[in-house]
Design goal:
alpha/beta; TIM Barrel; four-stranded mixed beta sheet; 12% strand; globular
């Protein structure tokens, strides 16, 4: 595996920023819109103002939390003997329609099709909800989507929760899938802070409900420089670290042994367009700085949302921004990431065509991250001497034995220059091949499920109970 890291912060800078992070956690804290969590934080030693709904966390509590994370969080090495596996999910609000060359609200059939697509492709290891079903009632949509996933793929992934009340039903469906009473492994663990420093009622409630089923306390933050945080990179890093640490201490008030994690997906405000970019150099440095702070000082466990980009449509910009963000974060942290596929427009739109391009790019990054195999067979010193000056390696047994180790794209163009009119269409042809790939895969796929009829009926009963509680 490729090692080393290109880190943005020096040891002196890390320590200076850390002092300011501790200042914010202790003197600003978090507004927590949940009485249960406020009371528990107070019992643990936080300074709580119930009128303002603010909890401030003394250094002792913060240090206890950091020490726990340092002793419990371990980075699992990637298994590069296996091919790369990406994921699709993220509940995008819109679906990119290639025929109409624009986005639209996703219909129920779009969701089913994208689940089947994820199930069909070997490159995808986990299938969540690529789009939100606009035909479903929002009050039960995550519950019904998990049921739909269970019935239509053998690669069921995690789903976001909208309301705390969803958790128990989704844990029950998870239990049916796993063959036990309850299981929270299909519920996304992340709960986002509203920058600056607000843990809203939904996120706080979800942390409490998820903890009942052993789901980690993963705190997400998405500050935007110049809007919901300082315009400067260092300021955003300090604020984002304080928000995640504050969320961790609050989570530990529920259960001292609750696992911890974090996600940073910061953005920068483009003053020229007044739009937010999550893939600008500033945004990437902000995320990388936060990750470095946690790796160096707080026990690790924080990742970045690498698929959030500014591009609105599938194509060159989306591919460049994603590759730039994934590669710089990978080089910056010194470790590869698990990559998603298909998101455009800052996570608002899912494009199956872009997903096919992303899968190819992810495979290229994976093969790069594997590094270089150094042994006698791969050094091939004897062969080099045998061929000598002016030799040719094309027809050798060694080339025949090893050429399949090289990554070979399915979509990208490696052909020679074409003087015909076709030569000017190379970019368009990549998009066309990507569209053809997902449409062919979907057309030929036979839906699969790991459930038997009894499990399907049991899941249907859970969904019906949820509908009765939330709708009827």
């Amino acid at each position: 595996m490729v090692g080393g890291a290109l880190l943005p912060l020096s040891e002196v800078q890390l320590r200076r920023l850390h002092g300011h992070v501790m200042d914010l956690v202790g003197n600003i804290g978090l507004r927590i819109d949940n009485d249960v969590l406020l009371d528990l934080a107070s019992k643990r030693g936080a300074r709580v103002d119930k009128t303002a709904r603010v909890a401030k966390f003394p250094a002792k509590l913060v240090e206890e939390t950091i020490q726990w994370q340092r002793s419990h969080h371990k980075i699992e090495p990637r298994d590069f003997s296996q091919p790369p596996r990406s994921s699709i999910g993220g509940i995008q609000f819109f679906y990119y329609d290639d025929d109409k060359r624009g986005r639209r609200r996703a219909a129920h059939q779009d969701l089913i099709d994208m689940i089947h697509l994820g199930d069909a492709l070997d490159e995808i290891g986990s299938v969540g909800a690529p789009v939100i079903d606009s035909e479903a009632n929002p009050l039960t949509e995550p519950i019904e989507t998990l049921a739909l996933l269970a019935k239509n793929t053998v690669k069921v992934g995690g789903l976001e929760v909208i309301y705390p009340e969803h958790v128990k039903y989704m844990a029950e469906i998870g239990g049916i899938i796993k063959g036990k009473d309850y299981d929270g492994s299909f519920i996304a663990s992340c709960n986002f802070i509203v920058s600056p420093f607000i843990l809203g009622s939904r996120s706080a409630g979800c942390i409490i409900e998820k903890a009942r089923y052993g789901i980690p306390c993963v705190i997400g933050t998405q500050p935007v420089s110049g809007m919901s945080g300082p315009i400067t990179t260092a300021g955003i890093i300090v604020q984002a670290c304080a928000e995640i640490l504050g969320g961790w201490v609050a989570g530990k008030s529920l259960d001292p042994e609750i696992p911890l994690g974090g996600i940073v997906c910061s953005g920068s405000l483009d003053m020229k367009t007044t739009k937010v970019s999550f893939s600008s150099p500033e945004a990437v440095l902000q995320d990388l700085g936060v990750i470095q702070m946690f790796d160096a000082l707080y026990g690790g466990g924080v990742a970045s949302a690498t698929d959030y980009v500014s591009a609105k449509v599938p194509g060159f910009q989306a591919t460049w921004e994603k590759l730039y963000k994934k590669l710089t974060l990978g080089v910056g942290t010194g470790r590869p990431h698990v990559y998603g596929a298909g998101n455009v427009d800052a996570g608002a739109v899912f494009s199956p065509t872009q997903a096919m391009i992303d899968l190819e790019a992810n495979a290229a990054l994976w093969n790069y991250s594997r590094g270089i195999q150094v042994d006698d067979e791969h050094i091939a010193l004897g062969l080099i001497k045998e061929q000598g000056i002016g030799g040719n390696f094309l027809g050798t047994d060694h080339t025949l034995a090893h050429f399949r180790e090289h990554w070979m794209p399915q979509l990208m163009d490696r052909t020679a220059w074409d003087e015909s009119e076709q030569g000017s269409r190379k970019e368009e042809e990549i998009i066309e091949r990507a569209m053809d790939k997902w449409r062919t895969a979907l057309k030929n796929h036979v839906p699969r499920t790991n459930l038997d009829d009894a499990q399907i009926r049991a899941i249907d009963r859970v969904v019906q109970r949820a509908r009765l509680e939330f709708i009827d």
